[in-house]
Hints:
This protein folds into two domains: 1-70, no CATH class; 73-108 and 129-201, Alpha-Beta Complex (UDP-galactose 4-epimerase, domain 1). Helices cover 39% and strands 14% of the residues. The protein has helices spanning 7-10, 40-56, 83-93, 111-120, 135-145, 150-153, 179-200, and strands spanning 15-18, 65-70, 72-74, 97-99, 105-106, 108-110, 125-127, 133-134, 154-156.
Amino acid sequence: MIHIIEVSRILNSNKTIPRNDLSGHISADIKPKFYPLDNEYTISKLLLWNKVVEKRKFNSLYNKVIFVHPFYFNSVYRNKYFLFGKIFDSIIKKQRIDVGSLDFYRDMVHASFVVKKSIEATSDCMIGSGKLFHARTFIKDLYQLNNMDFDEYVKENVSVLPTGKEKLIMAKVPWEYAYEDLLSDTQTELEQFMTMEKQWI
């Protein structure tokens, strides 16, 4: 997936624009809410969205631009400042970590699934599992799959509550993406990454 700022570049070929900054009940065919509005990156996305939607009314060429609304996705390439970046780093390096409360639910998919559905997209769409998965259960299962004791490696501060409760919404999607798919896709990437790391040592 790629972020594209210049509309002129997009119009040369069919491209997708990921959007993961939505809140509340959303649909792919309504104008989204962009937060925070004092962020240059967010402002650029809002301007691009407004411009393309307006241009679609008068120029069919702009129908080639597809907006993709991904729900939360994870990957071993997540920055360590993200929760799952921290989790994957812990599993890969066998390091202990401190985190806030993991007692929350989220519509989650793996990044590879977002890429697959983005490539298949023919119109504006949302990409998610359509389900809410429990974060702590998922993380514990990842540690177990990698023969690691969750309680030994993760110190959870239950008094630090998770943020972004607006993300407790689910995508309305026509496909099935089960918990087992999320776990399998994530574990497959973890194993591939660790194999690749060993080859470089």
